[in-house]
Amino acid sequence: MLRLGIPVIGVTDMPRAVAFWSAALNLVESQEAKSETWRTLNHADGSGRALGLQLSTSPPEPRPRLHLDLFTDTTEEQRAEVRRLTALGAGVVDWGLYPADPDFVVLADPDGNIFCVVDLSHAPSGDNRTS
Questions:
Q1: What averages of pLDDT result for each successive group of 10 residues across the chain (131 residues)?
Q2: Whole-model pTM?
Q3: Could you tell me if 117 and 81 are in contact, meaning their C-beta atoms sit under 8 angstroms apart?
């Protein structure tokens, strides 16, 4: 039976990516299938796999069709998480496609992979969401 696994992010600097995503999402590095080109990050509470990191030589997409949405419950929490993530090495993306009253902030991890921090108390942000 086919099952959905975990999201996998292509990275160019494995130690940096492990450090960023572990701190960003409170994940822990697993020894499962660990290699020079692969890391599995698990939930810190032991509930299983959360994210895969795979060494990649291709550049990140400037407008990826598939990306991660990270959820917050309030606007204040969203602002605090954006500050925390940028302190960890994320960058704020100059996103020219925001709707008039967005519920999301577009960031990029240290490898340039785009993801969004979404304020669920404000969602959805409009009819043409293109984050």
A1: 94 98 98 95 97 96 93 96 98 93 96 96 60 47
A2: 0.89
A3: yes
